[in-house]
């Protein structure tokens, strides 16, 4: 049986060999296509961090017939195309990258938003009826509801009914929230301020699902409610956040009444740009008094 230490050493040798560039064989190009990125090399005794390589700039196909066309195609999508193979199997680097991205997705789902993030941004916490992360993942219905005590806390935090209310929730990716939420909120607040709309101080809903915003809309009397929430992560990124927005939302309302701006992350719509765009949508909602499919964007 192969020992774990021996297996780790073997993987390190393979990756270091790839990063140095092995002597080209008849099926391998001597130089990568122009603009292609090579795998990083790790420190002595450490595995290189494959997640630091943008797979859109990495050519893993030996001797492609049209390197320029391949790289142009890869540049347009983060999907795993042109990864090559060893017989019928993925090559080592591709498999390890898959496992690393899958691990990042799992971390985003199962981890908690840090106390440091909440304290740094002075976010008061209101929890849904979920007792813990496990219950949040297995009982979505509890992530849509608040206890009477939590409801009173929301009323106290918001105060008099605002025209627009924006809050933050963990959802299914704490990584997305910690990476994008504050920059998005600040851009929204600045853009709405120019329209004469002052946003109340945001708060944080722990273990929150999207429809929790309907409860908040009803108890606060806000005309427009927007939640910045982490989306279910995939293998492309674990940092994708969305903004869900409703006009006079109510509990039990159809999902079609929500407007959503998704893919807010560095590889999609950057946080600051998304904040400005969401602010424009909110302005239009207030003018048209509608959201979701009733709002023509």
From TrEMBL:
Enumerate the UniProt keywords alphabetically: Bacterial microcompartment, Cobalamin, Cobalt, Lyase
- The segment annotated Disordered runs over 12-49
Please state where this protein is localized. Answer: Bacterial microcompartment
Quote the subunit structure annotation: The basic unit is a heterodimer which dimerizes to form tetramers. The heterotetramers trimerize; 6 large subunits form a core ring with 6 small subunits projecting outwards.
Q: Enumerate the residues binding adenosylcob(III)alamin.
A: 210, 231
Q: One GO molecular function term?
A: cobalamin binding
Q: What is stated as this protein's family in its record?
A: Belongs to the EutC family.
Cellular component GO terms, alphabetically? ethanolamine ammonia-lyase complex; ethanolamine degradation polyhedral organelle
Q: Which cofactor does it need?
A: adenosylcob(III)alamin
Which EC numbers does the record give?
A: 4.3.1.7
* Any one GO biological process: ethanolamine catabolic process
Query: Which taxonomic lineage is given here?
Result: Bacteria, Thermotogati, Synergistota, Synergistia, Synergistales
Q: What Pfam families does this protein map onto?
A: EutC
Name-wise, this protein is: Ethanolamine ammonia-lyase small subunit
Q: How is the cofactor bound?
A: Binds between the large and small subunits.
Reactions catalysed = ethanolamine = acetaldehyde + NH4(+)
User: What organism is listed for this UniProt entry?
Assistant: Thermanaerovibrio acidaminovorans (strain ATCC 49978 / DSM 6589 / Su883) (Selenomonas acidaminovorans)
Q: In which pathway does it act?
A: Amine and polyamine degradation; ethanolamine degradation
Q: What does this protein do?
A: Catalyzes the deamination of various vicinal amino-alcohols to oxo compounds. Allows this organism to utilize ethanolamine as the sole source of nitrogen and carbon in the presence of external vitamin B12.
